[in-house]
Specification:
By secondary structure, the chain is mainly α. Helices cover 66% and strands 1% of the residues. The strands form two sheets. A two-stranded antiparallel ribbon has the order 1-2. Strands 3-4 form a two-stranded parallel ribbon. The longest helix is centred in the last third of the chain and has 57 residues. The radius of gyration is 45 Å and the shape is elongated. It starts with a helix and ends in a 15-residue tail after the last helix. About 19% of the residues have low confidence.
């Protein structure tokens, strides 16, 4: 009965039609219900699920062969305190490391009940990351599971699985080629007719499975290499270089899996935040949360960004969402998502993070209660310095509006390979909603800053007008005032005093009295003359016998 179901399923799968493959999958499920360990039925079911793009079911079906899953399970088991399960897993690992003989009997004495593993078997197990026997498991598991892991965003696991499949296929081909005889290589299989050669050259043979897997493996290596370079630049503080590498992944011609793109958006948001580009960082967090609503890193980064620009209600909303995720993790005793999903947080870190998060939420609530919600830093949001000009604001606003327009918010979906096609509409709706909120925030910031700049320009114009009017009044007042009289200080020339002879003392006393009596007269201010020629000119103009009004310090040369 099982063999008949398998034969009928093969015939339906050969048609390559979706409805026929769905019918074949039903037959295979019935066959596996009768005999759960039939290798042919398992292989056909996995290939049917892969053809129907039900990658999550493939991963759930073959999750024991995912290399990174064993480490995640051991960490969760140790953090949750399930010591019995972990000890059972370790005992199973120790048992599977020993190759049990299939034909010998422990009581017969011909072969021992167990023997130590060989170096070649250990090398295969370490390279593939599995604790299963390669020959017994079947080569198809590596190719099918590797493709499914690639579409689910598990790039490192996909690379290990596909490389293992490729290595096993090469080894099998070598074994077959060595066993072939020389008689099969004859010229009868290679026609020399020019017509046949031209006809064969014009025909494009369909791409085989090995070729498609090779192309997929090359693409996986390229994505991993770019992501590694971007993370290295981010850790080194080269934020513009990290943004450039992540943009190559996110804006490339060929698409990438949904989970992998979400992780890259989170990393680029961190680079944008370090570079001071708040609006771009918030936009990347919005895209990451649209692709993965349970992304803990994206929620934490966006809450920090909102707090940086003093947008406290939005930051509080993200922190409350993060608190709900932490509580669900502690309630379910596992991280959100399937077992094989990659997480950047460990289970044992959740209680400490939850305590610090509760304190942070309480602090933000106190700030909101003290009316700090209206003082949003729009300069940091748009990426401008305080006191910027009107042209700088208009240019920055234009660039942000062109990049974060709500109509273009779902353009990244075209370059995303979804694990489930039913998620496309929900992702598009979440992306549009978050992009609209960011667009309104940018518009509000532009309006607020523009009004401030216009008020400053009007105030500056009024100050300039007042200054100009004051200067004109001062100039008019100076023009209407009469010129000041010349300053006068009596000076008795030395020649006159010498000519007077013995009456020197009497003349000096009279001059002093005259100087005291005329002290109220105006004095020529601002002249400090050390030039004797100038003094002579003054004497000649005023007359030799006439007293000259000049300061005494002018003659102290």
């Amino acid at each position: 009965m099982v063999e008949r179901y398998v034969r009928e399923a093969k015939m339906l799968i050969a048609t390559q039609e979706r409805s026929e493959i769905v019918a074949a999958l039903r037959l295979l499920e019935v066959a596996l219900a009768l005999a759960p360990r039939v290798e042919a039925a398992l292989e056909l079911k996995a290939r049917c699920l892969l053809h129907l793009r039900r990658f999550k079911e493939v991963a759930d079906m073959l999750q024991d062969f995912i290399p990174s899953l064993k480490m995640a399970i051991s960490e969760d088991a140790s953090s949750s305190g399930s010591l019995d399960n972990s000890s059972t897993q370790l005992s199973r690992e120790r048992v599977t490391l020993l190759s049990v003989s299939s034909s010998g009997d422990s009581l017969s004495g011909i072969e021992p009940a167990f023997k130590c593993f060989s170096v070649s078997d250990l090398k295969k197990k370490v390279m593939s990351g599995l604790f299963k026997n390669v020959e017994e498991a079947g080569q198809w598991r590596y190719s099918v599971l590797g493709q499914a892991c690639c579409h689910l965003g598990l790039m490192e696991d996909a690379m290990v699985l596909l490389q293992t499949d490729k290595r096993l296929a090469t080894a099998a081909f070598r074994r077959e080629s060595i066993s072939l005889s020389d008689d099969i290589f004859s010229f009868n299989k290679f026609p020399l007719s020019s017509d046949n050669f031209t006809q064969n050259q014009l025909e494009n043979p369909p791409k085989t499975e090995s070729e498609s897997i090779s192309h997929l493996l090359c693409h996986i290596k390229l994505l991993i290499r770019r992501k590694t370079a971007a993370i290295a630049a981010l850790d080194a503080g080269l934020y513009s270089e990290a943004i450039r590498h992540f943009s190559k992944i996110l804006d490339g011609r060929r698409g990438a899996p949904q989970a992998f793109l979400s992780e890259c958006y989170v990393h680029r948001a961190s680079a944008y935040r370090s570079a001071g580009r708040i609006a771009e960082a918030i936009a990347d967090c919005n895209r990451a949360l649209a692709l993965d609503t349970s992304s803990i890193d994206a929620l934490a980064i966006r809450a920090t960004l909102f707090e940086t620009i003093r947008c406290l209600p939005d930051s509080l909303h993200d922190l409350e969402h993060l608190k709900l995720l932490y509580n669900s993790v502690l309630r379910d005793r596992k991280l959100p998502g399937p077992v094989w999903k990659r997480q950047n947080v460990q289970y044992r870190e959740i209680p400490g993070k939850l305590c610090s998060l509760a304190a942070k939420i309480q602090q933000l609530k106190q700030r909101v209660a003290s009316r700090e919600t209206g003082n949003v830093d729009y300069y940091a949001l748009i990426g401008l310095r305080r006191g910027c000009s009107r042209s700088e604001l208009e240019r920055a606003h234009l660039l942000l509006i062109l990049k974060h327009k709500p109509d273009k918010s779902s353009s990244f979906i075209e370059k995303c390979e979804f694990a489930d096609e039913n998620d496309v509409d929900s992702v598009r709706d979440r992306a549009k909603m978050s992009a609209l909120l960011l667009y309104r925030m940018i518009q509000k910031g532009y309006t607020s800053l523009m009004s401030m700049i216009l008020e400053e320009e009007a105030a500056e114009k009024q100050r300039r007008k007042a200054t100009a009017a004051l200067q004109a009044a001062i100039q008019a007042q100076q023009a209407n005032e009469p010129p000041p009289p010349k300053a006068r200080v009596e000076l008795i020339p030395a020649a006159i005093t010498e000519h007077s002879g013995g009456n020197n003392s009497h003349c000096r006393n009279d001059n002093k009295a005259a100087a005291v009596s005329k002290s109220s007269a105006s004095v020529f201010q601002g002249v400090f003359c050390r030039d004797l020629a100038t003094v002579g000119d003054l004497l000649s103009q005023s007359g030799f016998n006439r007293p000259v009004t000049v300061n005494y310090e002018a003659l102290s040369c």
